[in-house]
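Team,

Forwarding the record for the chain on the shared tracking sheet. I've put the sequence and predicted structure together so nobody has to dig through attachments.
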Amino acid sequence: MEKQNNLFDIKEFSQAPDWEAADSSQCRVARVVFPDGPDGSFDYLIPEKWYEKTAPGERLLVPLGKSNRAVIVYCIDVAERYDAAGQGFKLKEILQPIDLQPLLSRRMLDLAQWISDRYLCPLGTVLEAVLPAGVRDQAGTRLTTVYSLISNAEEKLRTIAAGKAANKKGEDLPLLTSKQKRAYEILRNSPEPLTLTELAKAAKCTLVPINALKNMGLFQKGSVRRRGSLFEDSGATVPRRTPYILNEEQKAAYDRILEAIRNRESGAFLLHGITGSGKTEVYIQAIEEIVQYGKQAIVLVPEISLTPQTVRRFRERFDSIAVLHSNLTDSERHAEWARIASGKVQVVVGARSAIFAPLPNLGLIVIDEEHENSFKQNIAPRYHAREVALFRAHQEKIPLILGSATPSLESWHRQSTGEYHLLSIRKRVRELPLPMVHLIDLRSGNEARFTRGSIHRELHISIKNALDSGGQIILLLNRRGYSTQIQCPACGEVLQCPECEVALTHHKTEDIALCHYCDYQIPAPKACPKCGFTGIRYSGFGTERLEQELISRFPDIPILRMDTDTMAGHGAHERALDDFRSGKYRILLGTQMIAKGLDFPNVVLVGVINADTALHFPDFRASERTFHLITQVAGRTGRSERGGHVIVQTYSPDHPAILAARQHDFIEFAKNELKDRKEIGYPPFNMMIRFIIRGPDEKKTEAFAGEFAKKMREEMNLHQSKEAVKYGLRILGPAPAPFAKLRSNYRFHFFIITSNPENTLAFLKNFLAAQKKNPAEIEWVVDVDPLDML
């Protein structure tokens, strides 16, 4: 088992020494990377006084540039260097180690290097993502004075004893009292320095004998960052729930996972279970098995709204749970990481970045709803948690479980090639039936079926019947705001964001027109800003408008809206879901955050207000996302003997994705969609890499994009012929991105599609490292395995 060191003690900086050049025949060198600044790795000499306190995984303070300004870097390796030519070592010295112990183990450094290579991102940037800001900044801690014994404490005691004997003219008086002796031994054997109060507590005495030892000059003082006493131990417990009895399909999946755990297999298991089939219980019982061996687990969930429900289920079965998600404050995240690193946590539950949790004895990784896009990070490093989890599982020689009712086509393809092991659960728990799905055709010619607003007459009647029966309803509309378009009927002007050139959305509560991409906002106009016409039209439906419509239709029914506008407060998701579960609200409406993973037995009706919101985007995954969304939200009903049904309003009732979702038929959808992907050579059959070039000047940005892609083509062709390397690739573009302007920058993109990912990534790493500085204000971004095509 690899030991995970304490991450949370920091040395105080000392005065930085002047730069010197070493000229001995041998020296020790620290290889470092910068979080910001120059790419690549750099070597610094380690002064002899820091030999024992400098190790890979620590942060160091080093001089940079001609001015030798002090900057923080990550040490990734330490090595001996020999000067065979006798010319000396012209390297700058490190100024000081920052951390008492490495923040990152060797395996985590290797994982970070793999992410850097796989996603073409500087290693320093990756390390900043692996270590949360709250951990790096020691959030929630305070500077504490601690003490350890001086190095020559025994000699000091003998000197004091000799002096006492001389002064007392041979009287035989004890040098230390029994309490002082006990405190002395405790401090001598302590692996870490202690505060005076901690030492007194451990020795079961007052501070009087401790201060006496201190006054003898036996202690040396230091400063460390501490959250609390080393001897404190806290942990909330909740009533335990006994395991459920697994049905035949669940038991078969569990037994296969158990076999892998016991045989230390590092394979990935794709657990394909329909909605409501009890996948979570399989996860939990597998984790219970590894906990018995003294191991720990990571469970990733896709959205913050899932975390409270998931954590609740795990708290009922395990004594120690840690939670990592984006709504934690830096101080809270630091506290959780400290608990995890201590080895006292059995299960870490969290969103994407929880894959980096520093568990010292990891035994299992679970990714629930593995198809979710939120597992892909949209800023550097643009890693996918599924791929990182797969690498980490191989590192640790442990299984990875990927669970979903609607697996990603990448995962489904991998199980068909044998890379993943398929485990199937085709029945719901208690053999409850899947809900019937009814499609409502919204195309022209069907207007007579409408009442006013966004809710079709059939859906209105179904809502009323569900309410009359005492049931609850979930309504999905994946557009927030009140009106999605503001347009003048006189001159045709559409109100757009000047920074992004996308339509502004009307938010009625604040009475503003808001850009959802850069947060630009103006007061909602009363007249056309171009021609002055006062009859400006607000059209389109968002969740805010749907809420107002429901209030007018069902004035006595409590309604809950969940979207990013209403769920901004700390703990808002948990409170909202608890209120709906308790029956405080009868109708829950919201965006996609309500569509996945939630389990409410009293929900008897699910309505999809518009199934086409993402279906016709210029994105080859649009059909897959639509199928996932409809199937997942449909699975929120029919989870009890009361049953349930689903109504989907759509302008595309004949689309294959919607027809497959109507039948809950993932396998048929995947077969047809993969056939189409294979014909055009798109993922998952080949790797896709997207380059985005952006800048404030449209023509200069377009010209740079063209030259950048051209140079890449030329060098790749030259390299192929010179090195006899086959990339099996094509470059598409460049062309304007679908969102041609965002945040004042014009955007162009091009794509690389390759059947040889390893060679292509190696070439691109060298090609990108050799590029000169970009023209002023022009930036490029590389996204390996992109999920965002806009």
